Amino acid sequence: MTSTKASSPAAGLRFLLDTADRGAWAEWLPLGFFHGVTTNPVLLEAAGLPCAIPALETLARTAFDLGAGEIHMQTWGRTRDRYADHGRALAAIDGRVVVKAPTTVEGVAAAARLKGDGVRLTMTAVYSAAQTLVASALGADYAAPYLGRMNDAGHDGFGEIAGMARAARAHGSTMRILVASLRDPGDVVRLAEQGLDTFTFSPKVAAAFFADDLARQAVEAFEVAAESR
Predict the structure, then answer these.
(1) CATH number for 178
(2) Distance (Å, rounded) from C-alpha 159 to C-alpha 210?
(3) What's the pTM value of the predicted model, to 2 decimals?
(4) Which of 11, 58, 84, 142 is 20 to 30 Å from 168 by CA-CA measure?
(5) Could you tell me the residue range of the domain that residue 88 belongs to?
């Protein structure tokens, strides 16, 4: 890591928990290694929550009470006007809310308005390095590619996302490439080895970080030794 990157405000590994399940937040956020949480309308539906500002305000308060440093919540509405209106309402909840907008013409148009209002942004539904450059030129804080979905579609997701990071670094961008749709810890390790530093993943993937038989055996040996004294 170069000294320039180390001094950047974007430097450092960052994990986020990809779920709107408050029970999972209560389980994982107190461990201290998650920076915050990411949500979207599909995750809200899975958690039995409406995509509506009052419910999202309550959800954000819960996340912050549990120690989240930020929560990413997605705007909705199909048109740039509705994306912008909902995005402003989300940002007004708390300064720690990062508004997600799709990297489409309508989403980018809305995001430009939100950026002008000082709203923090994650550009989502990113599938190419070209989209990453759009997000960077816009001044977004994050761009979120979907690794698993890219691979499922027959793309070289790992190579494409590594290319996104190189393209961003090449012109000094401090925008984080927030890799989503991760299937196991090996995905995170493989991308981290290529310089990626920001990841969001499900509670299932989080649990897999600790599913190591050798570690469990070592801890059990420690405990047995401690109890023998």
Answers:
(1) 3.20.20.70
(2) 27
(3) 0.92
(4) 84
(5) 11-227
